[in-house]
Amino acid sequence: MQAVMRKDFAEKYGIKTFSDIAKVKPPITIAINKRGNIASSVAMDMLNEIGAGPNKIKSWGGKIIYAASGEQSSLIQDRRIDMFLNSLFVRQSSILQASNSIDLTLLPLSEKTVKAVDEKSGTKPFIIPGGAYKWAPQAIPTVTISAALAVRSDMDDKTAYNITKALFENYKKIATVHPAMKGLTPEVMASSEGVPYHEGAIRYLKEAGLR
Questions:
Q1: Which CATH number applies to 2-144?
Q2: Total-model pTM
Q3: Is the CB of residue 43 less than 8 Å from the CB of residue 53?
Q4: Phi and psi dihedrals of 103, rounded to 5?
Q5: pLDDT tens per residue, the chain (211 residues)?
Q6: How far apart are the C-alpha atoms of 198 and 200, rounded to whole Å?
Q7: Count of CA atoms in the C-beta half-sphere (13 A) of 106
Q8: 73, 97 Cβ separation under 8 angstroms
Q9: What is the DSSP annotation of the chain?
């Protein structure tokens, strides 16, 4: 989850961290993902945790808008929003594109906020490395969303087993999809706890020594 703010807005209101938004109470317009998207739900949990929910922001003269990831880059470049809060790969092209047009900054989350959001949303702590963007030299604490492959609970065990085996035995190929996934390992893949594992998947994980 990356809290990307226009640098001129951050400097105008003295905002240096994510929690500062609630302390300063600026007339801020924030874009989060479309309703129903997990990134949108997590973004709302993050804002509510610091005391910057929709009603609070409205009372400050600001607003929250819902926009798909592709739209958010254009909105911030056109200065129609002051910040977007979304789940994106580090160095996502849309962020790089926006930073070529306007100055941006990343807002770090406090340890307290990270812990609270993780407990409520099932996210995990994550550090955006310092220097990932030339305009963000410091490491930025935030939370991250995991991806999961969901299947019907009545899928036959053999099919679930074979799918799980194929994914785990080819994790190195999956890790080449994006540079941000280079840290993918079988242990990481087996760490998801959002929903119960299929019995066929459990059988493979036990055979692989991951359960």
A1: 3.40.190.10
A2: 0.81
A3: no
A4: -80, 135
A5: 999 999 999 999 999 999 999 999 999 999 999 988 889 999 999 999 999 999 999 999 999 999 998 899 999 999 999 999 999 888 888 899 999 999 999 999 999 999 999 999 888 899 999 999 999 999 999 999 877 888 999 999 999 999 999 999 999 998 888 777 777 889 888 887 767 899 999 999 999 999 8
A6: 5
A7: 27
A8: yes
A9: -EEEEEHHHHHHHT--STTHHHHH----EEEEPPTT-HHHHHHHHHHHHTT--HHHHHHTT-EEEE--HHHHHHHHHTTS-SEEEE---TT-HHHHHHHTTS-EEEPPPPHHHHHHHHHHH--EEEEEPTTSBTTB-S-EEEEEPPP-----TTS-HHHHHHHHHHHHHTHHHHTTS-GGGTT--HHHHTT--SSPPPHHHHHHHHHTT--
- Residue ranges of domains in the chain: 2-144, 157-207
Round to whole Å and give the CA distance between 166 and 176. Answer: 16
From the CB of residue 75, how many other CB atoms can be counted at a distance below 10 Å?
17
Structure-token pair, residue 144 = 């991250």
